[in-house]
Amino acid sequence: xxxxxxxxxxxxxxxxxxxxxxxxxxxxxxxxxxxxxxxxxxxxxxxxxxxxxxxxxxxxxxxxxxxxxxxxxxxxxxxxxxxxxxxxxxxxxxxxxxxxxxxxxxxxxxxxxxxxxxxxxxxxxxxxxxxxxxxxxxxxxxxxxxxxxxxxxxxxxxxxxxxxxxxxxxxxxxxxxxxxxxxxxxxxxxxxxxxxxxxxxxxxxxxxxxxxxxxxxxxxxxxxxxxxxxxxxxxxxxxxxxxxxxxxxxxxxxxxxxxxxxxxxxxxxxxxxxxxxxxxxxxxxxxxxxxxxxxxxxxxxxxxxxxxxxxxxxxxxxxxxxxxxxxxxxxx
Length: 332
Known about the structure:
One of its GO terms (molecular function) is porphobilinogen synthase activity. InterPro entries: ALAD, ALAD_AS, Aldolase_TIM. Catalyzes an early step in the biosynthesis of tetrapyrroles. Binds two molecules of 5-aminolevulinate per subunit, each at a distinct site, and catalyzes their condensation to form porphobilinogen. Homooctamer. The chain is α/β, with parallel strands linked by helices. Helices cover 39% and strands 17% of the residues. It is built from eleven helices and twelve strands. The protein has helices at residues 11-17, 54-67, 94-110, 150-167, 181-191, 212-217, 237-249, 263-272, 283-294, 300-314, 324-330, and strands at residues 27-34, 41-42, 50-52, 71-77, 119-124, 138-140, 146-148, 171-174, 198-205, 253-257, 277-280, 318-320. The strands form two sheets. The chain has an eight-stranded parallel β-barrel with strand order 1-4-5-8-9-10-11-12, surrounded by eight helices. It has a two-stranded antiparallel sheet with strand order 6-7. The two termini are 38 Å apart.
């Protein structure tokens, strides 16, 4: 008789033969920084997560460094919003100030420890900066309705990329799902001498119900929805096409978002990609486990680790997760 159970017989044996492992260096922690706060503001829909002040951001980055995380992803929430998101590429805008704070804090925290600093990444999108909450510049469509103008938005993205690079971002992460965004950003960065700045492309980003709590995290002003530019949840092949286009345009890394409901897309992108593949475990995925655990319906630590392990097993090299700090401590 063949007895596969021999390889499951003890914790030591299971650890020895594990096919997939988590490591802190694979994890990226998203961080929200809000202009004008005097103290961190807890998010009701995401227990344990806060909107940071500029001062508390430095401490969070130091924690990420001590935990050995691979990176941090920064999202800025400005005090002023307008139709074109002018604060997005303002050198003194909240996100660009946060980038400078994070770079300095990471270097200071890593100095003399022998540990590498986490890579500083910045979300490159207009939705947090526009008064209408969309990811680009609006224009009148054929029927008179307002729609996102793809090519006008690309001009704004190129400007954002340059400002983020000048502030010290090591990775810019275009998340707006505009056609041609990676090529335009790469050309702008290279033309300005920022050839060392990497692009993490949100390649297969779906119009998902699981983004709900994120709206609170960034004080979203969204009017309507984003279904004309984010992908339809029904489509698999389209996600692969989007990833292929970003690879052809020069993406240094590609991403699937959300993670948990799109593991098939993630696995297929990982199979065909010749660059690192990331997946974003989004706010709704976080909130569901936190809510179930708070009610005693599931084991919190077990569910968190299993959910992230599943994302890794599907093919993600990098996982963006709000549990990054806790996971790093658990697996230390």
